[in-house]
Queue: 4 jobs
Job 1
Amino acid sequence: MTHYPVTPRNRAKRVHERARYDHDTVHAVLDAGLMCHIAYVIDGQPYCTPTIHWRDGTRLYWHGSSASRMLRAQKGGVPVCVTVTHLDGLVMARSAFNHSANYRSAMCFGLAEIIEDAAEKTRALEALTDRFYPGRRAELRPMTAQEVKATSVIGMTITEASAKVRAHGVGDDAEDGHLPVWAGVIPVATMIGAAQPSALMPETPLAPHLQRFAEGRRLDEVMLETQAIYDAEGRA
Amino acid sequence: MTHYPVTPRNRAKRVHERARYDHDTVHAVLDAGLMCHIAYVIDGQPYCTPTIHWRDGTRLYWHGSSASRMLRAQKGGVPVCVTVTHLDGLVMARSAFNHSANYRSAMCFGLAEIIEDAAEKTRALEALTDRFYPGRRAELRPMTAQEVKATSVIGMTITEASAKVRAHGVGDDAEDGHLPVWAGVIPVATMIGAAQPSALMPETPLAPHLQRFAEGRRLDEVMLETQAIYDAEGRA
């Protein structure tokens, strides 16, 4: 198993037993989500921006961020922390103190840089569509040069990362076990609903490649499927 | 309507038309979620930590963060940015460029401080249970002094905030409208699953106050209900 290096920056400070540093665990958390939160600093002030991310190997990408102006001004990259979190359950214990949550999270550190080269930027934007919606780009018109120009794409090689996973039942104190209080886990998951076709659309059927986004499926499972296809097929 | 002040820190830099600064919109995004992401800075390095948050008026609270040591060392508070995001849908357009996501997000700025006073800390921890699970604290044993001591609670008065909401259909370019590509919105939502009772539990029925966490309900709707009860009843 390949691991990210453990440094003072990514070493878990709390609940060490939940921490993992191997690529497989970290990437599975990243890949299961569409959205990340990115922390960055401007003049000492931290910002936390939500955005859509995509991964190619140990590189993360995102686009159009309010940090773009700052990034453009600083060659060589600026330090950021990219975090993806999935809430999986509410853990209800017999004491307030032992209430908890089941979750998966990954924190990734690196230097974020604007991708200025048009060819590299085009490839990164194509990867975005290919990674989320494999097969879709074949039915779309090509991006125009103006569209590529109008989008900021930011890339970051992950230098350190850690994942934390809590995925078990209630951790009651032994002496609380007899208390007549309901205890257990209330699971939660991000689920896909019924597709809502555009009102302006002619009678266009849902393309086969979109049928995996079926009502009632878990979004994280679909996202892992599409990443696996992207990893296997690579970029067009 | 009461608004948060708009400053260079929280003024929307992009897609201005999606930005809102009023308390109602910002608080509705915060309250609909259990989890936030907190950006903070240690020695110039940004960190983005996921955690559970709760709100009382214009104060946000969270507990047990790896920033605790830093916070304890710095009286007067440290600048943080607390962001809550809900992914509501995948927006599939006829061009790669116009693909988007429906979402609700709120970014809140302020100075975070460790709550050292034991009475204030106890009240904040009681508020956590009351806000998430109204009615539950009455059936739990009181927290012990040791439990209160073992928990770091961090408080922050929101000084600036903004919310962004995208909640509409596809924004195709007019000239792409004829393309025979499926376009529309694939909605997603965080849903509650079937409660999993603790294996160690005697035949304890689900308390009436937990029945709102019913299988098949949207978590964000339940969270807004429980916050409304907390807002109406205040702290015990």
Job 2
Amino acid sequence: MAIKKLGKQTVKFKNPPYIIATSATVGPKEGEGPLKDYFDTILEDDLYGENSWELAESKMLRESVKKAIYKADKNITDMEYMLSGDLLNQLMSTSFAARDLGIPFFGLYGACSTMTESLSLGAMLIDGGYADYLVAVTSSHFSSAERQYRFPLEHGNQRPLTSQWTVTGSGAAILSAYGQGPKITYVTTGKVIDLGIKDPNNMGAAMAPAAVDTIVTHFKDTGFRPEHYDLIVTGDLGAIGKEITEEMVFDRGYNIAKVYNDCGLLIFDNQAQDTHAGGSGCGCSASVFCGYIYKEMIKKNLNRVLLVSTGALLSTTSSQQGQSIPGIAHAVTITNM
Amino acid sequence: MAIKKLGKQTVKFKNPPYIIATSATVGPKEGEGPLKDYFDTILEDDLYGENSWELAESKMLRESVKKAIYKADKNITDMEYMLSGDLLNQLMSTSFAARDLGIPFFGLYGACSTMTESLSLGAMLIDGGYADYLVAVTSSHFSSAERQYRFPLEHGNQRPLTSQWTVTGSGAAILSAYGQGPKITYVTTGKVIDLGIKDPNNMGAAMAPAAVDTIVTHFKDTGFRPEHYDLIVTGDLGAIGKEITEEMVFDRGYNIAKVYNDCGLLIFDNQAQDTHAGGSGCGCSASVFCGYIYKEMIKKNLNRVLLVSTGALLSTTSSQQGQSIPGIAHAVTITNM
């Protein structure tokens, strides 16, 4: 019997890894939002001195890793693994950053759920005795994502009110067997859930059932109730997905309303910044966690957090072929002990 | 100190997981090649009864998983994790298969290195005490890959002699803490290596330096010499990449010639089947390992194998932006004990 397994989908760590440092980099628009004081680096322009948005995203990811390592008082060569992914085809921003950094590398793809995928696997690698230090990181970029998934920006198309705004941002976390900081104590790995949503401009609704499934499974596997947490925070469901999630979790017997929020709603002022249903993209929960949440945990304003990054596993090909949008969500418990 | 770590990039398992069953599915062309008697399923046509090549690839992956689980005498619900990826944007074939199978899912992207990425992380999850049973799987499909990366097939363009033929195939392996079969004993995780090759029709040359780096690091970390192995087999370097690898490894002090081969050369008769430099794609090393190598290990004709799947981290965007092609390779030691 797997000795660290709780219930069907949850792991309880025997030697919970520390998150000894984080770093969050965001674009200019994110740097004008409500969380502006929590980010480590705010870009003045979203090309970041590069020749393309894709290279700018890659630089953002690379620099976030370097800054997190610096804040952990370690060197790049101390990092035994880099677990990372992004939204771009073939993980372009991640692959090129991994080339420059030279850290042994596992490429991940979980769409916007990638931050908790990297934290989950990273925590298992530390607790399992395979590494003392590693970095979990991800990124997204508004302009590179729009070019790839929707329309070239030059097209100037109108965005429906259900649509979300891809966050230009990257978050990197250093996990360690030693040191101090909040610990990763539980991981609940999600299944791919698809209730048949086909509208690529309504990702929140497509991802919500996966978030619900993972949150409810987490409660069942661990025996925790919502009151166990100071904050339960989904990745980037936005206004519509958050409302659906809260109701569906309630229907399954858990009232999370008092402690529940969504990174896609925290990062922008949707009214003032015209971001419609909220933020999205791998960089959304990554920069909100590595910026706002981690720093509030260090200050002990938050002590028990369930981070549930959520991903829509949509490709332009599957969309053109009339397929619906599968969603996935992974949950990670982070605890001040 | 990470207790299971050897040298810089290698893990030595304390409780090496068993590979209790595998299944390999291939397309019609692969089914006419030299390894035809080793595959579990050979498709009669590469649409496999589906409406698109992408859906056919997804079905191939899903059916490989189901057959491997059946051969292991287990049920789908016994599988605690599915670790999988493919070449398609947003892992379309994997995501849709994971949706149908309903197994907790970690999406991976390592281009053609994905089979050893999934075996590496899978072995860590079993040895670490997080699961008793899981499935590691990947796929590729000639027609879906050509459409995405190069030209629509209808274009009928001529292929240069350095080009490789993407394998239509999928391989699935069931890893377990119990049972019998060959064991995964060591894992050497690769770095992204890029020596500046820019020709997307010469992937072998682009990936070879990564294979060399991982193989030489494996020898240094473990203290093994090439003679330790009955077979050292790279993923899909093809004729050109294999020759480069053999020479570069020799220059670094190890003569692997007597035990070295490449999955991309094993799967096709390049002359008779007009596949130029050999096979490629995630499904290449996956189907050759899960078909030929695993079955030869069960028969004890092979007892110590170093499987080194190799990936070219090329995207059409990075290629159009004039970037070179980064490569990566992960090595896994599989031993009859």
Job 3
Amino acid sequence: MTTDRVLERVASTAPYALHPDRLLPADPGTRAIARELYASVAGLPIVSPHGHTDPAWYAENAAFPDPSSLFVIPDHYVHRMLYSQGIRPERVGVPRLDGGPVETDKRKIWRILAENFHLYRGTPSWIWLNHAFQTVFGIDERLSADSADRIYDKIAAALERPEFRPRALFERFNIEVISTTESPLDDLRHHAAIRASGWSGRVVTAFRPDPVVDPAFPGFVANLDTLGRITGEDTSSYAGYLSALIKRRKYFVEVGGCTSTDHGHPTAKTADLSAEDAAALYARVRSGSATPAEAELFRAQMLTEMAAMSVADGLTMQIHPGSRRDHNPEIFASFGKDKGCDIPGPTDYVEDLKPLLARFGNRPDLTIILFTLDETVYSRELAPLAGHYPALKLGPAWWFHDSPEGMRRYREQVTETAGFYNTVGFNDDTRAFLSIPARHDVARRIDAGFLARLVAEHRLDRDDAFEVAHDLAYRLVKQAYKL
Amino acid sequence: MTTDRVLERVASTAPYALHPDRLLPADPGTRAIARELYASVAGLPIVSPHGHTDPAWYAENAAFPDPSSLFVIPDHYVHRMLYSQGIRPERVGVPRLDGGPVETDKRKIWRILAENFHLYRGTPSWIWLNHAFQTVFGIDERLSADSADRIYDKIAAALERPEFRPRALFERFNIEVISTTESPLDDLRHHAAIRASGWSGRVVTAFRPDPVVDPAFPGFVANLDTLGRITGEDTSSYAGYLSALIKRRKYFVEVGGCTSTDHGHPTAKTADLSAEDAAALYARVRSGSATPAEAELFRAQMLTEMAAMSVADGLTMQIHPGSRRDHNPEIFASFGKDKGCDIPGPTDYVEDLKPLLARFGNRPDLTIILFTLDETVYSRELAPLAGHYPALKLGPAWWFHDSPEGMRRYREQVTETAGFYNTVGFNDDTRAFLSIPARHDVARRIDAGFLARLVAEHRLDRDDAFEVAHDLAYRLVKQAYKL
Amino acid sequence: MTTDRVLERVASTAPYALHPDRLLPADPGTRAIARELYASVAGLPIVSPHGHTDPAWYAENAAFPDPSSLFVIPDHYVHRMLYSQGIRPERVGVPRLDGGPVETDKRKIWRILAENFHLYRGTPSWIWLNHAFQTVFGIDERLSADSADRIYDKIAAALERPEFRPRALFERFNIEVISTTESPLDDLRHHAAIRASGWSGRVVTAFRPDPVVDPAFPGFVANLDTLGRITGEDTSSYAGYLSALIKRRKYFVEVGGCTSTDHGHPTAKTADLSAEDAAALYARVRSGSATPAEAELFRAQMLTEMAAMSVADGLTMQIHPGSRRDHNPEIFASFGKDKGCDIPGPTDYVEDLKPLLARFGNRPDLTIILFTLDETVYSRELAPLAGHYPALKLGPAWWFHDSPEGMRRYREQVTETAGFYNTVGFNDDTRAFLSIPARHDVARRIDAGFLARLVAEHRLDRDDAFEVAHDLAYRLVKQAYKL
């Protein structure tokens, strides 16, 4: 393509239209290959093995209330950026823990997003929001102070229609299966309701035991009481506690179709204590008097115990370490967890995973998927580990790195040592239901671009690239998560 | 553009001419967009909010003495590279602390640079030097052993002419405002002289309190005496010491037009001690008997105190941590500070900044600009922090990373989480006056290239890209530094 | 080139043929420059200053036994990837330490490689294996389950012919000089035999003292006895031990043509103890009762002692730190060292090298080449160190990073601070003789691509780029290693 034609194309693209070549490499030769690769996977069903959508949506299939409740209030990516420029969470309706006053005028909240939409330039939120506005609601102008009300009205009107209810969108998004994430204390009533409803959409749960394995979790001791009560086990002893967890995993499999567990520890620390030491440590944490070091050791021990349970029941294990949660005490006190004040820190995998790997790392019948917020470990630690241990696989670029540049760095830094086949496709990991198609689309485009570069540089053959593109978009995730 | 035309253009470019497309992406489509973006900002005035030029230059407006004194002797990037290949600082005229003999023949020094000019291939010094040779002095051949004398003579002759005096160059460089950096003990006489002179050039100072807040700074205790004397405060008490600092900041604002402070600590450690503990710690460091740990804690406490003062007087705060200063004892002993033997090390921001952020991080009326020499923190720590805390902004790629690849990595690793609007444009941070236009030009070109890629990949609209280019080159720096 | 022509070219390339433009940048303009740069160095002789081929091959010149013994069994990159997918080392013939049964059917082993060849897509093993298949054996189809036997037969037949013996391949590969690596306890009989044979191929040794300087090395104490015996020195004293090492280095120079030493420590720790403390520490490690901390301190001290010996005898020193060796206890127990279960970890250079650098860093007559497995130190630590200290140079991208993306990151992150002339060209560092031409070819292509980008972006002149390409492929390695 000549320079003039490139410029002309750019110029003639209405700024609010999603370009069919978006996110593909600029070099025309590479783009042509990427375009074909992307086309070959663009229509594949979405397999979403890890995320945080609310199962009540699918169970109740109620209409989403309004544009701000859908796009602003629950999305920590969105209000985090606004807050960084001084717009407090109250102003965009984020509920206070003390029930204090927050903005309730949804249109006013929407206007704040619209007036500040330039802040998202260059960020994945920009991509996700525009993708949803355009592909889901047919918005054909850019969000701005001027267009705010028109777009609000258009989305609000759509949300009242049956084809914008959760199940209809689920089907329209071509979701083959989606996993939510629940605490072991959850009764999975929504999952049961979905199954009982006769609806064909496949929604499964994932077992996230942080509330009952992390002594620093709010309400930990009371949670252990509850765990005992709902399982009929005596959680005052370590043996009873472990039995309760095993029972609960079984319940998740039976009632929630669960195929995986998820562990969000501050570090990747693992331990393999003697039965005696583990029981003594449990007694300390059970009493609520554990020191931070004991809490860390207990979490470490529980990762290894969870691996042992996974060997027995076949659940794929996910480890999501490295977030310094709730870094901002003021925001945490006012608004609680998951409100955008989590900051990553350096994370060690080589030493920290050793105890677990020494015991289970050589088992090809176990799958442990590692994630990171510390990109320095991609080439230094994660790819060498996953390129060796049969039990290990690498999860996709996560959280702050679930973005075009982040995904590109992931492939560039992981592939040469771990290959493609020690990775597990894409996770959207989102609470933002409307962003799911956009996120999977970004991943497919970036992978197509990466593969296209390998083809253009004659490092991968064309036919191989098509096979790999399919594997990354569909096959690997189904295999790793047994979906 | 066809391949043949590309090659032809490359071949037909005389090797010593600055190419109009230099530093723009090679892909013709992307380059065409980058060229337009660059053209839209190339002529904007230079706002230089942080640097180390000598205010005496602007005050006295004396001629620069000779080419080597301008380009070689004071530039640690230049003699560092020569030293790495065994050419000692004495041989290029760097003064010894003991007054021992060093080369004084400026032409001989210049020839050493010329003979070794290939060492700078691929480095920013290559760009900066060639840019100054060509745009300032009209040199039309490459520096080499053969051309050394001709170029020396041409530059030397130019330096005698009035249009090469500091003020004339300042105007020719289209500098709207430049900041120097002074110690609180400086009387700012040069700044006062500039103002008194009636010259229209705007030169401001920045408040760099290291000599009086870092117990490891040479002469620290004596510096506190001086600080007391010049402010009329009693620096034997912590209260008097803090008052002295507040007074001195006020003096910097009034006499030097100061709008910012700058802090060059070895780490990003902050502390928020009780008034009592802080006073007791001050008594220790005041006595000159502080341990290294106490010195570190005092520096940490002073960052928080400085933030408190900034809340009161509105000065923007810059934190430049992470350099292991004076790594080479022999060179330090012979030549003193800032002679090229500073080496970066890993730097933590997430834990280290917590005390300061817990107290002031949520204030939108405070601006703290973070810099780093440890690129691993861009995506892991700095972008998440600046993408959340209202008080935080990110400074540009710094020192070793003030280079095409360094700037590109900065945008690629920072933008997706922090956006563009939590960054503050460019700093040249230089002592090398002649390199200022080159450095700002590099930044504008690299940013144009980055934005062009986003446009070419349809991740950013054209009109948005033009606005962002302008923001990055001009608006954001003025806003962040209140200039 | 038009998009259509690019696609056509890709399509018309038989998938099993090495493309002449492989690994060059996709942008046509940049590729055209890269092609010329590559062409200018493609035919240069191979200088291989560091590696692990077996000197017996060149001494005895016996035929390589079969395809699997050549390509699978000894290559830890190959069986590491198979193992990551659950294929145990026994199944591909890796010998067990206990002599237990492993697969001996070489054709069966080959079929396992063939059936799993897709695992290597995107990895350097894919490039190296295909390069050797095609350029050495003329294989014209891709390795797969279907082609496995045909390819096996073709290679097996070739190996019986004289032109596939080690010396013939050495000559065909255009190797000017290759270095093997031996323990100080090795008698260098193969090196002596090569020299006595009258063959013109130049094979030198490198002095790798880990077995006698690392107290954690298996058999360390017995090794010291042997060292004493073969040198006639009394290794019960530190003085005798140091004399023995000096003698042994001399022997390596005289018998093995040695020009360099190599040090594979877990960290880059160095120390500069007093003579008394060093002797006392030696007594501890000599007795076999050293703690891990003492072992670490002894290794640290020995790096400094080795630097002192290098100042005296002129051997170039290589430091290869940062591998957590034998991370997997089960595989280590079954198969021993170097079987793919080494994992890198974070490595500090700035503090750890200080004692050695304080003593010897300023000597331009000493060459210490630093390598890393921790890419985060390229721009943060290694480039600033090598861009300052006359004694330091940077080794090329190593081990897991000896790959297209790894080499590209190396140049991008190192050049701007250290330049090209503080680097030392390429090391293949391999046991896989057949991969040597492929590895050097990859390095030359990636460097050509990097330089071409600098030219295309007008950051480097064409004539300079040709000179640098030649320096990187040939001149710098000969100079740094005195070959």
Job 4
Amino acid sequence: MPELRDDGPVLVLDLGDDENRFSPDWMDGVHALLDTVVDRPGPAALVTTARGRFFSNGLDLEWLAAHEDRLLTYVERVQGLLARVLTLPVPTVAAVNGHAFGAGGMLAMAHDFRVMRADRGYFCFPEADIDIPFTPGMAALIQSKLTPAAAVASMTTGRRFGGPDAHALGLVDGTAGPDELVAAADARVRPLAGKSRATLGAIKETMFAAAVTALRDTGVPAA
Amino acid sequence: MPELRDDGPVLVLDLGDDENRFSPDWMDGVHALLDTVVDRPGPAALVTTARGRFFSNGLDLEWLAAHEDRLLTYVERVQGLLARVLTLPVPTVAAVNGHAFGAGGMLAMAHDFRVMRADRGYFCFPEADIDIPFTPGMAALIQSKLTPAAAVASMTTGRRFGGPDAHALGLVDGTAGPDELVAAADARVRPLAGKSRATLGAIKETMFAAAVTALRDTGVPAA
Amino acid sequence: MPELRDDGPVLVLDLGDDENRFSPDWMDGVHALLDTVVDRPGPAALVTTARGRFFSNGLDLEWLAAHEDRLLTYVERVQGLLARVLTLPVPTVAAVNGHAFGAGGMLAMAHDFRVMRADRGYFCFPEADIDIPFTPGMAALIQSKLTPAAAVASMTTGRRFGGPDAHALGLVDGTAGPDELVAAADARVRPLAGKSRATLGAIKETMFAAAVTALRDTGVPAA
């Protein structure tokens, strides 16, 4: 399950040592740790990473198969988490330590910046191959962070990008060796940890308003 | 007139050996061949190219001059063809063999990818010079495929870009010699020919929803 | 105060030799000179630059502090000037001679092209540091000219970019030495000075319709 390490002012969100799929419990855990990040007194910045072969392998298809009647509320929760990270009122960077597939890749895209391990792991949107089209919110999130050419190359092909290819296309902002990955990510946000959260949150809400609206509108009636 | 060559699973749409302007008959021909592409059983991918000096020289101004009263329905048909290619449910690539001007350039932009002949031919949006501003749909189509800097450089200047300049700016994804052009384009989509058409079509409809809406809304009342 | 030099067909708008902040009088002066540019008979193109250490240091915070009750109409006027430059019906380029901060940077972004002095001066959006979030119109303007990665890097960090860094990120289209700056900017628009103003204005209005709408909608009731 997700854990948080305090390397003040940088907080390292560890998504886990497994496939780190978006199960309801896992999302609850991530939300609780994001509460800790946002509520931390004084400067704060977020590095999100994981241990092992996966950053995150995306939707929890096994849980979904067992709870088909809850598909819409599940998608709503996934998109709510993505919208929250997209507009988190602290500087954020994903340290992509391994495979980032589907919603796992979207979670990385929701961060302000991305650094990817250079030697192993794939960044991939497999939607075109697994016959799960992007929701409007998920597409808007990805497209809000990529050039049109990078969006077409990654969203319509199912192609798996290793670190150097992901960097060349602009899916990530940089690459690093496995032992330098978290440090390279840390260096991008540590100098920014002192920003006003109200201001930074407002800036991201304004910049990504269209994607946030699409992510929060899943067609699920309000309770 | 347009022709189709079956190099299964890749289908090569040949726009013709003339200026390949968007006459009503030519558009009918292209639509009929796109029907064949989409209806082909089994895997399919589209390479669009032409013979001679032109990929396409754009709107059929001569036909328009003789049918001024049909301007709106003509524009509606041009935009309908562009919207169809933009969301075609198979992988698509334009092999730009020669001049791609105006709507000819837009047709190339509507494809998922573009490869341009390196040694001859120009990619050009002459709208700023011929006093025909882009319609909202045409502008949205082009901007949905380019970085803002590339959109300004190509849409406000009337500049003619040879292959290497077009590649440097990102108007096309690559260049090739004249004898390797179709093969270079083919190589980009052949590995993708097996994608589900329903899924790929849905992905493109979602990614380019704003441009499609603008292209399909030409102010012409529905019949 | 702003001045205009006629180097026909190029008109050089000199923003001043001070900090060139957006005071009401300064904006009145710029608008009057833009009238001269647009009304000039025959071909015309605009180079905007300044003398000294600043291109423009942005909002006139001193004036604002003394006129707090006029904040909304002030913002409306700033955004109106930005919208006007964004859609000016002649080719435009900013020759960024020195610091371009906040609204000063936005004014540069509103031009079709930007060339920046290579050796001195910073391009900076300090909003994240001075606790003034971007208005929706200002954010839309900047984002209409930048890749998503460049928008995040410049709008969420408060980072100051020297010329080479600004060029590498795409904030500006080129750099030049101090003595070649205006000539380098001039060379980008002089060949374009003969475009039809009606056509070029219509093209920019269409391309940047979303940003223009956001800039012109400041929540201030019409008089």
